[in-house]
Structures are given as C-alpha cells and as structure tokens.
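Practice problem 4.
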C-alpha cells in the first residue's frame, strides 16, 4: 500500500482529532466547593454509615475560594473547555429566597472562565437538591419539576451569556438507581414506585428546561434577557462575553458498555440487550428531540449473565474478568468499551453530536492514569474515524474531590489536593493530557509507550 494510504497508526504520526475538538475537564459543585450546607447531601452525610470512614464533604477542596487558581492550572494544561455545575442550594437556600451574593459569586466564577478563554459547559443539577426541595419530597414530587424550571429560568437570566453548553441533569439513572432502588444515596429509599416517579419527573424536568432555555436564549428572543443582565467580573476582571451563536442543551448521561458474559447464551444476550436499553436508551428515547448534543459520562463496562431468581441483580451486576486491571475503586479498565458505546449511540442517533462529558479514573498511580487517558482517547479516535461525531472530551476530574458515598479517598484529579493544606499539585498524568490537548491528538510517541508497557509519563 502506498505510504499515503496507510493509517496514521502505522506511521509515526500524531493521531489528529477534528479541528475545534474540545479538550476539557469537569467538576461538580458539591464535590469540590466546600460548605454546601443547604442541600440534601449535607444532611445525608451526617448519618452514621452513609459515607466511607464517616467522612463529610465539609470544606472539600475549597474550590469556592480557589477557583481562580484552579482555572489558571487548567489553562496551563492547555485545556480549552470546562464543565462545572451550579449549586442550586446556594442560589435558593430557602424556598423563593434567592441569594444575590451567591449569584455574584457564580458570575465571578463564570467570568473567570471566560476571561481565560474557556468554553463553558454548565450543569444545572449534579445530584444535589436544596434541602427544602428534598423535604417536600424531592424528585418523587411533581412540584419539584416546577421548582427546577423556576431555578433554570433564574440561572438563564443571570448566567446566560457565559454559557456555551447547558446540561440539564447529570446522570439521571444513577440518581434513580442509587437514591431510590439501592438506598445508598439520598433519600435512601428502596422503592420501585419511587424510582419510577423519580425517573418520570427527571424526564419531564429535562424536557421542560430544554424548551425553556431555547425560549429564553434563542437568537430572536434573547435580546430581552441579555439586556437585563449585567456582565460581572471580580475586581474589574475583564471577561469578554460573546453569547454563543447557538444555544446547546443536553444531559450528561451515564453510558455503560454492556455485553453478554457467555457469548453464546441466549439468556445472557437477552439480559445484555435489556440492560443496554434501560441504561443507555430509555432516558434518551423518552426525551427524544430535546438533545442538541449527547453528553456521555463513560466509566463502566459490564458483562452480564443471568442468575436464577435474581432478575434485577442480573440486569445490573458486573461480572469482571479477574485478570483485568482495575482502578483503586475496583472499576475495570476496558478502553474498547468506550468506542463500542460511541458506535452504538451514533448508530441510534446519527444526527446528534456527542461530547464525552466525563471519563476518568480513580487511582494514586499516575502511570496508570496516564495509560488510561491515552488508551481511552485512542479508542475515541477510532470511533471518530469510524464516523462518530465526537466533538469534545472532558476528563473527570480537574481536581481531587468528594466522591459521594466513597468519601475523599478515590483520587480522580488531574491535580492532587492536599486536604490539610489545600495545596494543589499538578500530577504527571495531567502533563500527558496537556500534551494531547496541545497537539489536538495523540503523538505517536505516547502510543509507543503504551504498546511497550512503558509509563507514558516518561514521554515528558
Ligand atoms: C459521575 C458523576 O457525575 C460524578 O459526580 C462522579 O464523581 C464520577 N462519576 C465518578 O464516580
């Protein structure tokens, strides 16, 4: 084959990503800000046994006061996009009681991102609810959809021009499963009916807020909204805010790559199909035509087999190959899963662009993190080559954070947090990721290291 026709993988070239591909990182309010005292998680953490080692989110990484420094570090890592969430309970700590001071805080945060040239992806609901909403029944209560709409409208009116991508809800199915079926997250229920109502209300919330954001911000209508907004900036910080040409709204969906444990077993295959439908397609198909992009949070690969008498467990349980490498919290490292999931999604929804809104690993071993990043990004490259319209990748997470019921020990960050001193340290894997972002692709050198089992950090 003439050299020009060989695949870049066989040549010593960088595997280039499409022009304008976004390289980013993500965080969520409750996991990094500290002192989110008015939400349901804060209450939940007080319960004995709810969080590993009895930890509480407390001050967390104190990102609330360190955001400028954190964004500087993200910039130094050549990142061009950032995903964060608003903490509803800060903005509306009491019913109808909006906190102007917190509005100003988030305007400063968003301005700080814009001043550094980041594309901003803003999540409205990343698992936490104001305690007053939880006390009125949380997502099981239809009224919560109304409250959520009101909050979304408030957010659009106060933060609209800073935002390039809106994520209505983060991982709706995880919220349903852990909060209402397994009882491991607030409100700690094990109720099929509760799970069903929650699921329905989350689909309603997404659909209504999708239309609301478009109504308020689509070009022809938005001048009225924009006029009433002052574009803020702390201590005279300049942020040039040019509202995005097109408003883009979606969800960040937890996508699982599912296969049958016993390839030739019809029962296992049926279970895998059903599980795939429930995890990956049900929410999107019930909210059809309200996704300008598909946000993919990718962490899991599952091989399913049916166990007699355990219908539900069989649908969701993971059967791991013992020899495979895992993260520090036992999650299997299976890079091919991400390209399989992407191909599958794009076959189903060929016209909707995809952003990887989260992908990352909890580990204290940075060689492992580096290999993880390179090998998953390589799989995304393959999916793009196969025609999947992937437009961005957000590593989870920019900084170490509070990993819900697992507390602080899982270390997902590109940047390490010393929780005693709050000192930030850029991890070696972050530099590997920074090289990828700078090149807008995977330099061949990095791939060679992976192939030979050498730590990619030696590439630096
Ligand atoms: C997805 C969730 O959105 C995020 O909050 C969490 O920390 C990561 N998964 C890792 O579990």
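Answer key:
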């Amino acid at each position: 084959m003439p050299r020009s026709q060989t695949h870049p993988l066989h040549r010593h070239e960088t595997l280039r990503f499409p022009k304008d591909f976004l390289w980013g990182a993500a965080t969520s309010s409750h996991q990094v800000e500290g002192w989110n005292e008015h939400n349901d998680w804060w209450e939940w953490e007080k319960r004995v046994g709810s969080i590993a080692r009895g930890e509480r989110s407390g001050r967390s990484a104190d990102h609330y006061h360190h955001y400028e420094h954190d964004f500087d570090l993200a910039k130094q890592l050549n990142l061009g996009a950032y995903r964060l969430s608003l903490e509803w309970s800060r903005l509306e700590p009491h019913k109808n009681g909006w906190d102007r001071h917190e509005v100003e805080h988030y305007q400063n945060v968003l301005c700080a991102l814009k001043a550094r040239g980041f594309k901003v992806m803003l999540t409205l609901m990343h698992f936490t609810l104001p305690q007053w909403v939880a006390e009125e029944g949380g997502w099981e209560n239809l009224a919560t959809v109304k409250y959520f709409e009101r909050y979304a409208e408030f957010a659009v009116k106060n933060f609209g021009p800073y935002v390039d991508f809106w994520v209505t809800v983060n991982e709706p199915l995880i919220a349903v499963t852990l909060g209402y079926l397994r009882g491991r997250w607030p409100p700690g229920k094990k109720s099929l009916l509760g799970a069903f109502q929650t699921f329905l209300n989350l689909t309603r919330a997404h659909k209504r807020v999708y239309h609301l954001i478009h109504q308020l911000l689509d070009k022809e209508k938005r001048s009225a909204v924009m006029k009433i907004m002052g574009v803020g900036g702390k201590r005279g910080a300049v942020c040039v805010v040019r509202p995005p040409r097109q408003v883009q709204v979606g969800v960040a969906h937890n996508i699982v790559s599912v296969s049958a444990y016993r390839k030739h077993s019809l029962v296992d295959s049926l279970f895998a199909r059903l599980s795939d439908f429930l995890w990956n397609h049900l929410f999107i198909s019930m909210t059809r035509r309200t996704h300008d992009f598909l946000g993919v949070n990718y962490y899991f690969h599952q091989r399913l087999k049916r166990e007699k008498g355990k219908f539900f467990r069989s649908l969701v349980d993971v059967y791991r190959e013992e020899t495979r490498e895992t993260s520090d919290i036992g999650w299997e490292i299976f890079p091919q899963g991400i390209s399989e999931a992407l191909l599958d999604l794009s076959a189903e929804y060929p016209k909707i662009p995809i952003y990887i809104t989260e992908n990352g690993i909890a580990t204290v071993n940075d060689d492992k993190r580096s290999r993880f990043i390179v090998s998953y990004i390589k799989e995304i490259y393959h999916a793009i080559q196969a025609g999947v319209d992937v437009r961005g990748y957000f590593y989870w997470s920019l900084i170490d954070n509070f990993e819900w019921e697992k507390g602080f020990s899982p270390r997902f960050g590109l940047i390490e947090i010393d929780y005693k001193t709050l000192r930030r340290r850029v991890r070696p894997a972050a530099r590997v990721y920074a090289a990828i972002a700078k090149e807008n692709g995977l330099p061949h050198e990095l791939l060679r290291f992976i192939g030979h089992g050498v730590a990619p950090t030696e590439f630096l």
